[in-house]
From TrEMBL:
UniProtKB keywords: Membrane, Transmembrane, Transmembrane helix
Organism: Microbacterium oxydans
UniProt name for this protein: Sulfoxide reductase catalytic subunit YedY
InterPro entries, sorted: Ig_E-set (IPR014756), OxRdtase_Mopterin-bd_dom (IPR000572), OxRdtase_Mopterin-bd_sf (IPR036374)
Phylogenetic placement of the source organism: Bacteria, Bacillati, Actinomycetota, Actinomycetes, Micrococcales
Signal peptide: none
């Protein structure tokens, strides 16, 4: 009868109680994370841990599927996992106590482990998840106890037997409380005369606590996350930061930027600049307390402050950055003006010992990159520590306050953001973040060319239209770009005036487009006279190759 179906309903309410317990756990941890350690957010720490351990093919799948929203997708997945696990914990706590609390404690222990093993974490970072576990478990126990009381008052015959068997098995609720007393009375009252009134009271007690705990968790959790994200004090420190004028600036020659709709800007605005990193939340580092340590195979360990870097005197450099994950024709490449100091001068301060062949750069978040020492000491290569990007201090997500930029090497082996240490070492002795994850220890950029307009898959009107794009061969320079239409001859495109060999150039060609579907292919030749590699290669282990060929529909 009705009582049987309402028995099932208690399972659903137990799942809700579990959700509330989980939400209270997370909200408590978030609010104490504000006080004790910003990095102590359980979800973010577990997310970071997942990023570090998932197998490479899965990571590539995630980037291919979600693009730069890969982190949002990860968080959504984690959120779903939390919802399911909390609901199960609630049900377990009702039917097999104290398994629900045990499940919550295990989740708490795992997230505490994820938090305290994060790089650069504060010593008290274990406090928020531990407090979260305690408060979350307490609320879960309380809610299930009230639910049990309600169930006992409604289902005296079927469930109260289970209830009395369950209750002693639950250490946290072995001590009788007013709630249990009320529950026992309620059960008797209902059995005796079938009056629903006591059940009404027990039910109300359950829902009042559910509502209060749920609402508090949502308000506290959302508010704490908002505070730690938006009222980032480092963001305002950055806004107020005055970077000294550079001693020299980049000369942009006349004709360096072509005026063609749809063509990439010569300098990629910071807000449009691609972002690739393993940081689930952007590290916020106060330049006042920031230090760069240069150690390893050096004559003397050197520590530099942000001011020490500025005091070396800044120069402006134009360098195009490229990600190893950039597919042929892809968007993970951008050009910027950087203010910085040469890495060779920084390394000179410590004095590099002979025998070293690599610099392992480390980020505050534990990320590392292995850069050949020669790329950082070469007098003819502008490998720099950068403090500014396109006329402003580095944006937080691009490495504030100091990052590396090395022309000619993919970002993962050279462009460490939120830099904290340069360890002079050898490839034999040390390994960077991506090396055991399927990427080469050394990775020069494979020079490439890209069509920006007409956009792939976008129909264009017949008539004279420009085909235009960019091409890059950092540290060598682009000599020419050639275009072939419908497998016809390779025709040289017109190049923009190059700024230097470290930046991309723009190219264009006027095309008399006739109605139909056409095939546009592009390839570059570098200043060594090498032709861009035609053979297709995937991004792993050391960058994609191939000529971009696209279909263009003309109406
Ligand atoms: N700390 C840190 N630095 C990092 C990375 C990272 O994951 N963590 N990713 C690297 C990679 S793979 C690239 S391509 C560049 C991208 O720099 P951007 O995000 O400023 O474009 O940063 C590099 N520096
Ligand atoms: Mo990258």
């Amino acid at each position: 009868m009705a009582q049987r179906s309402s028995g099932k309903r208690f399972i659903a309410w137990a799942a809700l109680a579990g959700l509330i317990g989980g939400a209270v756990f997370l909200a408590t941890a978030e609010v104490f994370a504000l006080v004790f350690a910003r990095a102590a957010s359980p979800i973010l720490a577990v997310g970071g841990f997942v990023i570090d351990i998932v197998p490479q093919p899965f990571k590539e799948f995630a980037i291919a599927t979600f693009g730069e929203n890969d982190k949002v997708a990860l968080l959504a997945g984690l959120g779903l996992a939390v919802v399911i696990a909390s609901a199960i914990a609630g049900i377990l706590q009702l039917v097999r106590p104290p398994l629900g609390v045990i499940a919550l404690v295990i989740a708490g222990a795992l997230s505490t482990a994820a938090i305290v093993t994060r790089a650069g974490v504060q010593p008290l970072a274990f406090v928020p998840p531990v407090l979260g576990t305690i408060v979350g478990s307490f609320i879960l126990v309380l809610l299930i106890r009230r639910l049990r009381a309600w169930r006992g008052s409604v289902l005296p015959a079927t469930a109260s037997g289970g209830k009395t068997a369950d209750a002693p098995a639950t250490p946290p609720i072995t001590k009788p409380t007013p709630t249990e007393a009320a529950k026992a009375k309620g059960a008797k009252a209902t059995t005796a005369d079938g009056t629903p009134a006591p059940a009404g009271i027990d039910r109300r007690r359950f829902f009042v606590l559910t509502a209060i705990a749920g609402a508090s968790a949502v308000i506290v959790g959302v508010a704490s996350r908002a505070v730690s994200m938006t009222v980032s004090s480092v963001e305002s420190i950055r806004d107020a930061l005055k970077i000294p004028s550079p001693r020299s600036t980049v000369t942009v020659p006349e004709g360096a930027e072509l005026d063609i709709p749809g063509l990439s800007k010569l300098f990629t605005p910071n807000k449009d600049f691609y972002r690739v990193d393993t940081a689930l939340t952007v590290p916020s580092i106060d330049p006042e307390t920031w230090r760069l340590v240069i150690d390893g195979m050096v004559d003397q360990r050197v520590e530099m402050s942000f001011q020490d870097i500025l005091d070396m005197g800044l120069d402006e450099y134009a360098i195009t950055l490229t990600c190893v994950s950039n597919e042929v024709g892809g968007e993970l490449v951008g050009n910027a003006k950087w203010l910085g100091v040469p890495l060779r001068d920084v390394l000179k301060k410590a004095g590099v010992k002979s025998g070293a062949d690599m610099v392992l750069s480390k980020s505050v978040d534990g990320y590392t990159a292995s850069t050949p020492l020669s790329a950082l000491t070469d007098d003819n290569l502008d490998a720099i520590l950068a403090v500014a990007m396109n006329g402003e201090p580095l944006p937080l997500e691009h490495g504030f306050p100091v990052r590396m930029v090395v022309p000619g090497l993919y970002g993962y082996v050279s462009a460490t953001k939120w830099l904290t240490e340069l360890k002079v070492t050898t490839f034999a002795a040390d390994e960077a973040y991506w090396t055991p994850r399927g990427y080469s220890a050394e990775a020069p950029i494979k020079f490439s060319s890209r069509v920006d307009t007409p956009k792939i898959g976008e129909a264009v009107a017949a008539g004279k239209i420009p085909i235009a794009g960019v091409a890059w061969a950092q540290s060598v320079g682009i000599q020419s770009v050639e275009v072939s239409i419908d497998n016809g001859d390779w025709v040289p495109a017109t190049l923009s005036a190059p700024i230097n060999d470290d930046t991309w150039v723009q190219w264009f060609m006027e095309w008399d487009a006739t109605p139909g579907t056409h095939y546009v292919a592009v390839r570059a030749i570098n200043k060594n006279g090498d032709l861009q590699i035609e053979d297709r290669a995937p991004i792993a282990p050391d960058g994609s190759s191939g000529w971009q060929r696209s279909l263009v529909r003309v109406n």
